[in-house]
Amino acid sequence: MHQQPSTMRAAIRFLLLFVAALAVLAWGASALFNRQAMVWAERDMGLRARLLASSAEPSLRDATGASARRLLDAMVRDERLMGAALCHPNGRPEVASNGFPATLGCASLPGEALRAGDAGWDRAISGPSGASHLTVIPLGADTAKPRLLLLVHDMSFVDRRADTTIQYTFIAFALVGLLGAAAATVVARLSWLSWTEQLRKVLLAPFRAMDAVAPRLFQPLLSDVRGLVTTLAVEEAGAETGWNPERLQQVLRRQLGGEGILVVANREPYVHERDGRGGLRVVHPASGLVTALEPVMRACSGTWIAHGSGSGDFDAVDASDHVRVPPDRPIYDLRRLRLSSEEEQGYYYGFSNEGLWPLCHMAHTRPEFRSRDWEQYQRVNRRFADAVADEASSPDPIVLVQDYHFALLPRYLRARLPRATILTFWHIPWPNAERFGVCPWERELLDGLLGSSIVGFHTQAHCNNFMESVDRYLEARLDRERHSVVQGGRETLVRAYPISIDWPSRYAEGTAPAAECHAAVRRELGIPEDALLGVGVDRLDYTKGIEERFLAVERLLERWPTYRGRFWFVQIAAPSRVIIEAYRTLNERVEALAHRINERFGRDGWRPIILERSHHEPPAIFRMYRAADLCYVSSLHDGMNLVAKEFVAARDDLRGVLVLSRFTGAARELSEALIVNPYDIDSAAAALADALAMPEDEQEERMRAMRSLVSELNVYRWAGKMLLDATRTRRRERLASRLSVGKGPGG
Ligand code: F6P
């Protein structure tokens, strides 16, 4: 039968250990046996010597000189006796047999041998030809001063026997070992076959009858297998019938026992700001991450851990820095972390936004990496990991780590909670390996992320870039078939999960119909009822291509003068990261550009660009989407861009045209948008002109296709797919650990 390499390795390791244990046992047994054999041999030699002495005593007692010598020579004819000698009572030599070993004579007897008395004295000694035995026996014990008879026996036969014993012991143990191993293998193989047969019976039984068929031993395994099957079934059903909050809840209930999830994100979903009159107001931050994750948390519940960045954030929390949100209908917990200004500067502004943000976006802003920022980044990642460990109510929580602010957190968390399921989602692009290598701490960041169970990106291209970076900078094994990285025996899946928005969008549902928005927004802006309106909605960020967007509007007005006086472009630009120099200068440039274009074309109160540099709450933004004839998303580089999807969600009237940069993740899905290269100002202007002139039926056709896609690929699917992958990983790990525990040597 074909054996897996790891099974072979385990079998070889087992055999080597078995052989080593047998060798140690054989060695110990023969040592013990030899010692005992020596004791017995000494005793036998002593008895033998005394027997010889007592039979020789009558003749030897009074013999002296030549007659004594003859008697002694006669005694040593015995093959074991090497020599015999007679000594005077004081130990002076008297006579010795032929060939008596000179070194063992009367003169060398120890005092105790001379004083031994009637019982005599004997000892194993090392003689000239190996192990010997010396016995000293008084002759004529009844006399006052008996002469002493010395008998030297050859004991070298004991060593020879010991060698033979060792050989036989080793052979015996080897035979026993071989027979034992063969018997164990046969028994293990038979039990394995019967175990496999039983397992097959259980797995082939109808789903409901499984419990009845399965022996108790299989029950835990069975529940894991059943979970895995349900996961697949739920996933299949999800793919067919669409994802929504209920299905996501179902996944959590069925697959994760209803366990709440822990989200870690720098940005919080609700910010409390002091209103200047002693009260607090709640602000929804402009963040794609919040747009996507907040509905997921509403569906799943749990705890969102974030930096408490609002001026009134800590007036709203309880003693443990928690507040229930959403404020109007609390469903989940928001845990706020206080950061010192030094931490915020180094971790958020410095390393995250002056280092990683420009590193990952191709928008021609040079990344800045400073050691002091790196120190704060590590420190804050550790603090957040501690907070997650605090919030976890089990040793294996599900943790969703969000974005580039927390590349190190998965590794820190893995050390604290080894059994946690950590899903890390990187909301921005991942650059190619060469560019990523610009970061002085590229290895630490990669290693940190590989603490995750799954690392997710918006697109397969970003996954590939990540795998290449791991390949280039870390010692790790890439499994390109499974799209995973194996490091230190632990696997991290690398997967594309294109993020999205909730569907149906609660903000779209809460917004007035398009016709109403159309009229109301034009009224508020002070522009004619029939004005053509374009809209852009972004954080004021250099990756968003806002300058290129204005230049495209300018070119439109140059080349299609018919739109002069008829077309307005409203840019909602939420101030962002304003203490960073690159953002400050961008603010100034955007303002100056809008001013220049307005000066150039403005006439009779018409000014083509309306720049609103302030935070807008979602309802105001959705009204603007519904009122517009086109929405232009001109990002120079963007992980996904949810403004594009929100615009589509808002247009339930099937009107309006989306003009979309090809450098966004969204462009890969929304192919019915007018896809442009924002750097190509002429083509972008032509796309704006096409959008403004597009017949209604074409608008409808395109919008319908995009709405169908976003409704299917919504944020519940994004979260559901990740959680299903996570549950599958969890179950596989559990199953594998159970199988390895139950695995017999033959398996
Ligand atoms: O694009 C990644 C992202 O995290 C978005 O989700 C979010 O809009 C932005 O970056 C973060 O902005 P901020 O620094 O204001 O949290």
Broad CATH class of the largest domain = Alpha Beta
Note poorly predicted spans.
Answer: none
Number of helices: 23
Radius of gyration: 45 Å
The strand line-up of the biggest sheet is 10-11-9-6-12-13-14-17-16-15
Q: Largest sheet, described in full?
A: 10 strands, mixed
Bound ligands: 6-O-phosphono-beta-D-fructofuranose
Specify the overall morphology. elongated
Number of separate domains: 4
CATH topology of the largest domain: Rossmann fold
What would the keywords be for this entry?
Rossmann fold; 747 residues; Beta-Lactamase; alpha/beta; 10-stranded mixed sheet; binds 6-O-phosphono-beta-D-fructofuranose; 6-stranded parallel sheet; elongated; 23 strands
Describe the fold and architecture.
With 747 residues, the protein is α/β, with parallel strands linked by helices. The chain is built from 23 helices and 23 strands. The strands form 4 sheets. A 10-stranded mixed beta sheet has the order 10-11-9-6-12-13-14-17-16-15, sandwiched between helices. It has a 6-stranded parallel beta sheet with strand order 20-19-18-21-22-23, with helices on both faces. The protein has a 5-stranded antiparallel beta sheet with strand order 2-1-5-4-3. The chain is elongated and about 155 Å long. 6-O-phosphono-beta-D-fructofuranose (F6P) binds at residues 266-267, 287-289, 403, 427-428, 576-577, 639. 6-O-phosphono-beta-D-fructofuranose binds next to helix 8.
